[in-house]
Design a protein that fits this description.
By secondary structure, this protein is mostly helical. It has one domain. Helices cover 80% and strands 0% of the residues. Helix 1 (2-30) crosses helix 2.
Amino acid sequence: MYSVVSLISMVIQIFIWLLIANAILSWLVAFNVVNSQNQFVATVGQFLYKITEPILRPIRGIIPQFGGIDISPIVLILLLIFAQNLMFEFIAG
């Protein structure tokens, strides 16, 4: 059972890093630090969008935007960390 929880925890950690990468890339594109017309940047952006958007979309529907700032990735990261800690607490107890 511990192996399954460890694997799920690792998948959660990878997804958290993908969320962070998506947020950073969106900021870099918004501030014209990287060119979104570059094929590599566009490919990475599309990949991150397709991976993270299905989970972020329902959260965006619930949480209002604060002056144009999207806090849904932060909320999702906190929920994932909570779920991760809950899994380990369940297996330990």
